[in-house]
Amino acid sequence: MEKSLTKSPSIDKVIGHLCSIDEMRHVCPTRAGEGEPLLSNNDVRRIIELSSRLMFPGFFTESDRGASVMRAVMTLECHELRELLITQISAGLCFDADNCERTMTTIRDRAVSCADQFIETLPELRHLLDTDIDATYIGDPAAVSTHEVIACYPGLRATISYRIAHRLYELEVPIVPRMITELAHSDTGIDIHPGARIGHSFVIDHGTGVVIGATAIIGNNVKIYQGVTLGAKSFVTDDSNNPIKGIARHPIIGNNVVIYSNSTILGRVNIGDDAIIGGNLWVTRDVEPGEKLIQARADNFRSSR
């Protein structure tokens, strides 16, 4: 015998509180009656997937696509990508306080322009990612092929998402770039802020626990291992003791630098070209070009006491 559904007075009371605008501290931005789009993690994940498919056909799809239909399939996917970008960029712009007074027509026009500019740079992004793939393969004796790197390596997955997000960040798209890198963070354990600036031939080996802050600058041919943090040493605060936004506070890493696992580099310090940072180090000072930082041997420490 089926149980009858009865109306619960307590649920009505709870919903009344939850729906009360007066009780909401954080209200989703909206333009009543204009039907603006909303941000969607599912759609943002699809944007990453489609961008990856277009740049690396065959690697990020579950269905076979022969050479005879590849162009047609990629054309359809590119149109889908464009529409998703327009919708999600529009949603991001709606969330941005600077756009509160703009009409949906103005916001959509801006979103269309950003989506088209992003799509036009996909060949350039692929060229840049090719350098990351090659550097990862060359630098890892365990890598069987560049195809394995593309299909399997979480460091590259996070880098692909970062480079997609960074391009949108350069186009001044709000919120969506951060959503992209946070989805990669959830998937790989690698946290790269889309505002960080990273040169070509970038390698994240193993990767879990890597953190790269918003104002970090990384040169070319840099390799970092799991657990590395490029973070902020401290925050400049205002009169109310709140951190001031937008100040450069993360490290600058030169070219050809290697940073081994679980090392933490904090503050706006400069790590010179060709430097090597050993594992499990805490670095808060500049490192000269070519300098090698390593932990003191335990036996040397004991003999000096």
Topology of this structure?
Elements: H1 9-19, H2 41-55, H3 67-95, H4 104-120, H5 122-139, H6 146-152, H7 154-170, H8 176-188, E1 191-192, E2 197-198, E3 203-205, E4 211-212, E5 217-218, E6 223-225, E7 229-231, E8 252-253, E9 258-259, E10 264-266, E11 270-271, E12 276-277, E13 282-283, E14 292-293, H9 298-303
Parallel strand pairs: 1-4, 2-5, 3-6, 4-7, 5-8, 6-9, 7-10, 8-11, 9-12, 10-13, 12-14
Helix pairs in contact: 2-3, 2-8, 3-4, 5-7, 7-8
Verbal overview:
This protein is of the alpha/beta class. Helix content is 44%, strand content 10%. The protein is built from 9 helices and 14 strands. The chain has helices at 9-19, 41-55, 67-95, 104-120, 122-139, 146-152, 154-170, 176-188, 298-303, and strands spanning 191-192, 197-198, 203-205, 211-212, 217-218, 223-225, 229-231, 252-253, 258-259, 264-266, 270-271, 276-277, 282-283, 292-293. It has a 5-stranded parallel beta sheet. A 5-stranded parallel beta sheet has the order 3-6-9-12-14. The protein has a 4-stranded parallel beta sheet with strand order 2-5-8-11, with no helix packed on it. The radius of gyration is 23 Å and the shape is globular. The relative contact order is 0.08.
